Amino acid sequence: MLKIFISFLYKTPLHILYWGLVWLFFYLFFSTGSNNPQFLFWFTSILSVISIITSYVFAYNLIPNYLLAKKYWSFLLYTVYAIIFTLFGVLVTVVFGFIFFFNLEFQNMPALTKSSSVILVCVFLIIILTSGYKILSHNYKSIEEKKTLENKFLHTQLQLKEQELKFLKIQIHPHFLFNTLNTLYGFALKKSDTAPDMILKLSNLLDYILYQVDKPSVLLKNEIQHIEDYISLEKMRFQESLQVNFTKSLFDEAIQISPMLLLPFVENAFKHGAQINGVLSININLKTTEDFLIFYIENTSKQVTTTKKGIGLENIQKRLEMLYQNKSIISIRPEANQFIINLKIPLKDD
Q1: Three-state DSSP class for 245?
Q2: Residue 306 banded pLDDT, cuts 50, 70, 90
Q3: Facing residues of 249 across strands?
Q4: Domain total of the chain
């Protein structure tokens, strides 16, 4: 009730204007055939009061508390009471004019003011217009509230998706870092000239993984550079037991992709790859056209089938679904002594 009262006070000027127009309508309409302005003033004023009371009863009580609450029988009952009140009010108004202004001479009253049916039609018209506006206003507010809730829900979902996407981006397996640091430690003990270069590549790679991941997109050539740094670090660790072939065919070096989109595939190949005849062999081919990026990677493996893809592949598949929905194509094929992945993603939005 307090909210209704505050809302009413806020809208008081509009209410005054509206009922002023209603009063003017009654006055002009019932002035036909009348030369008694004093009677018209009081007659119009009483009809306006009846219309105001009944309209507000409907607008602020019966409609919100019964009709919109789906209490139809109660609404019908109170509507009957409101109609009886209106009929009684109109009858009293006619009798008031009949007695006090025309000295019980009914034939002297203006034609429109002594027709109860005409008066009732005018009053009910105002009540219906006011109630109809209230219903339309309620429906509009309901639609706006629904849209606001939907927008909040979508915004929350978007935030959750962004957080999930960010989380998926940074999940490169820690075994790489541990192994690289162990290798770096070994080189440092030997005072190898390779150690500074290894530290620089590792620093660049960690910067990319930890900080550049927040960007929505990066240049493809940057992703390639960090893939090559990653491979270089693994070559330092594996020495002669690693053979990597990385070929590239780029349509445009300014192409942008989501960061850490391809690197997890490479990380997965090292993590789950196996040495055949003492050598881990990895072949990588990256190709771009005007419309697509095509990425192929295979590594030697001792498992013909696999039930565990590793967290890298699971995460990258989730990211692909979030970024491209059904527009990306990924094929994961474990074969005899090989594990093959084919990826095709669009470079342009449809």
Answers
A1: strand
A2: very low
A3: 287
A4: 2
**Triad 277, 279, 284: Cα angle to 5°:** 130
Residue 115, SS3? coil
Tokens of 332: 């994961």
The partner residues of 216 in beta bridges, in order of sequence, read: none
Handedness of CA 181, 184, 189, 195 (dihedral sign): negative
pLDDT in tens, 96-151: 666 655 555 556 566 666 667 777 888 888 888 888 888 887 777 878 888 878 77
CATH number at residue 274: 3.30.565.10
State the angle between helix axes of 310-324 and 263-272 in degrees (0 to 180), rounded to the nearest 10: 160
Pair 334, 303: CB distance under 8 Å: yes
Please spell the DSSP secondary structure of 168-210, one letter per residue: HHT---HHHHHHHHHHHHHHHHTT-THHHHHHHHHHHHHHHHH
**Are 260 and 296 found together in one domain?**
yes
Cβ-defined contacts of 58-66 (< 8 Å, 24+): 58/82, 58/127, 58/130, 58/131, 58/134, 59/130, 59/131, 59/133, 59/134, 60/4, 60/134, 63/131, 63/134, 63/135, 63/138, 64/134, 64/138
* Domain co-membership, 286 together with 152: no
Together in a domain, 221 and 177: yes
Same domain, 69 and 195: no
């000027």: which residue's tokens?
A: 13
This prediction has a pTM of 0.53
